[in-house]
Design a protein that fits this description.
The complex is a heterodimer of chains A (198) and B (131).
Chain A (H helix, E strand, L loop, with lengths): L14 E5 L5 E9 L3 H9 L1 H7 L2 E3 L7 E7 L7 E10 L7 E7 L2 E10 L2 E10 L4 H19 L17 H12 L12 H6 L1
Antiparallel strand pairs in A: 1-2, 2-8, 3-4, 4-5, 5-6, 6-7, 7-8
Chain B lengths: L4 E6 L2 H11 L3 E8 L2 E7 L8 E6 L3 H12 L5 E4 L3 H10 L4 E8 L2 E7 L5 E7 L4
The chains are: A alpha+beta (198), B alpha/beta (131).
Chain lengths: 198, 131
Amino acid sequence: MTDQTQYAPASAFGAEIRKDPGDTWTLVLVRELRHPPAMVWEALTDPAQLAEWAPFDADRNMATAGPVKITMARTPKPTFFETAVKRAQAPSLREAGVLEFSWGGSDLRWRLEPLGTGTRLTLWHGIDRRFIAWGAAGWHICIDVLDRLLGRNPVGRIAGTDAMKFGWQRLVSEYSQQFGLETRSETPNLPAQQSQES
Amino acid sequence: MKIKITTVYVDDQEKALRFYTEVLGFVKKNDFSQGPYRWLTVASAEEPDGTELQLALNNNPAAKAWQQASFQQNQPAAMFFTDDLQADYERMKASGAEFTMPPTDVTASKIAMVKDTCGNLIQLTQLMWKG
């Protein structure tokens, strides 16, 4: 495994926020990956690969619809959600891949479209507006880690407070700015020892 | 080793924050989110570096069942101490708090019970006997 200290995220890019009907917001994040949809699909559904990059673990392969237990990675207290994969459509030559599931109270959808020999990966994440830039920054880092995993150059999962060591705060302020959100209100109010680590 | 945090399960963290700060009078201490997870704690305004109360979402069946059973059995989810129960009672009533028990004399103390609007009963205690 490559030393994690080698990793530093690029500037914020490829994200927007949309207001849904009602009072909820969706984060939309688009990434162009070098690897084909079938490989990306495996990484999004296989528990062993999720453990290498995702901010959660799944108790089964997520490639089929139905109940799934999702355990959050590195939360201050162990936290899991008894939830469900709503839609799982593996990518094929003719059709884009779609994976949709609820993650706690929020809905998450991936779309995998072929892009040359690679994949255009789109994420829709229904998320509280106050934490939307945090989410964008977190996914930015997670998808970078996913990309390195697919490139057989894994750096290991970066989730929770780990992200603080990898430019998460900078990403939060960049995304806040791009989304036109007040950065001050987005400043995390973290326990003292965790702030000192960053 | 220190007792630094205790938890109450709530059915709505935003509503809980309003009750525990605006009605009860605590102050927000930590608030951060990781995806659908939100770590939210409050502390006493009189003792901001004292024990924290975590307002945890009751998003699993065990937490929900425990919370509901406790409520039905009239068991408080947490107990806070005050030096002037009557004054706090009046102040919180004025802020719209719903008490299930007004200040009542019991052994060595005066207690009251209030709904936290998020599925719990909270007991307020004033010690009357100082040994």
